[in-house]
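Reviewer comment 2.1 asked that we show a complete input and output for one of the modelled complexes. We chose the heme C case, as it is the one discussed in the main text.
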Amino acid sequence: MEEEKGIFSSGKFWTAFVLSWFLLSPVMAGPVAASTPIDSITKKDPLVSNGKQLYADLKCSYCHSLKGQGGTVGPALDNVGFRRTKEWMADHFRNPKTVTPGTKMAKMKLRASQVGALVAYMNSLGGYTFTPQAAGLFKDHCSNCHSLNETSAFTNDLSQEKRFRDMDFLMDYISDPAGMNGYAKMGGFKGVLTRAQIKDVAAYIYQQGR
Ligand code: HEC
Ligand code: HEC
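Response of the prediction step:
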């Protein structure tokens, strides 16, 4: 039968000691902690935090959801910053009927500063950004078959994708069309472009018309 070991000689104690050192050291080192801050955009921009507070105070979630939490009267707002321009949103908050005739969203008497804060918060949602290389990627790999021109009669125009598709769909389709659509004529870009490039070009498409 094994003998009980003293706590300091037990392996578990030293493992815990070393682990806690690693966990606590960023705290001890002060504000240079390596962990990524949650919601960095909200923290950086006071307008965004004000908007977030207004979103709660004005009970927007009665009709809208974020990350699956909230009502379903209006659309989910997770990526709204990528679907709508700042101008559209400001008009929408000043008087929803001017941009959506017959909308169920009531006119709220908001001050200009509140409109600005809500727009900033809405615009911070989502988080898809693209690099300066994205336009070149689209030109080199996609523009033979696709346009990004809202007025184009070309059926393969991708400028309205943001209204019908989400980022996951775009990335999956670009990677492997046959996996999404049995009749796909488009060849997949998995192996041709890196995952990061596929995300880049998808975000670029998503951002069109903003
Ligand atoms: C009574 C329900 C209701 C409330 C409350 C409400 N909305 Fe809406 N909202 C809607 C409906 C319905 C739509 C879709 C029609 C439209 O575009 O007006 C909408 C549209 C939107 C859109 C455009 C979404 C898109 O995808 O085009 C945004 C942004 C928005 N609301 C933000 C807000 C915010 C922020 C608040 C709180 C200040 C709020 N809404 C309160 C019902 C509501
Ligand atoms: C050789 C022509 C060709 C090239 C090159 C091409 N596509 Fe396509 N793409 C198509 C065709 C045709 C469709 C229609 C569905 C199908 O046949 O796959 C399509 C469909 C799509 C769709 C789905 C649209 C939807 O909402 O259903 C996306 C997204 C897309 N392409 C993005 C891209 C991107 C991004 C690139 C460049 C990285 C690219 N395509 C390059 C021909 C092409």
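The mean pLDDT is 78. We note this here for comparison with the apo prediction described in Section 3.2.
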